[in-house]
């Protein structure tokens, strides 16, 4: 399993719900969470065999800004 970390444009719970729908539809995602108190509105995703580009692409198609952060 890998932990992927992203800066997002998500700021409200209703947006988190929309992301939840997208991420739970991805079979390789084991867990995920947001830190909306962080200035970058961090999304952490625990996944196996999933590239950061796949997460970014999926969220961007839904109108959500998403950019992988290096750690």
Note down, in words, how this protein is organized:
- The chain is α+β, with helices and mostly antiparallel strands.
- The protein has a single domain, classed as Alpha-Beta Plaits, CATH 3.30.70.100.
- It has 2 helices and 4 strands; from the N terminus they run E-H-E-E-H-E.
- A 4-stranded antiparallel beta sheet has the order 2-3-1-4, covered by helices on one side.
- The protein starts with a strand and ends with a strand.
- The mean pLDDT is 95.
Average pLDDT for all residues: 95
- For the record, the count of structural domains works out to 1
How would you characterize the largest beta sheet?
Answer: 4 strands, antiparallel
CATH architecture: 2-Layer Sandwich
Number of strands: 4
Question: And the CATH topology?
Answer: Alpha-Beta Plaits
Helix/strand class: alpha+beta
Order of helix and strand elements from N to C terminus? EHEEHE
Helix content: 25-40%
- How much is the radius of gyration in Å? 11 Å
Uncertain segments are none
Strand content: 25-35%
InterPro entries: HMA_dom_sf
Protein name: Copper chaperone CopZ
Organism: Mucilaginibacter yixingensis
GO molecular function: metal ion binding
């Amino acid at each position: 399993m890998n932990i992927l970390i992203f800066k997002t444009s998500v700021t409200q719970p209703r947006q988190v719900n929309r992301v939840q729908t997208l991420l739970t539809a991805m079979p390789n995602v084991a867990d995920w969470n947001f830190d909306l108190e962080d200035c970058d509105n961090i999304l952490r995703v625990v996944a196996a065999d999933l590239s950061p580009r796949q997460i970014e692409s999926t969220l961007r198609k839904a109108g959500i800004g998403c950019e992988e952060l290096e750690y």
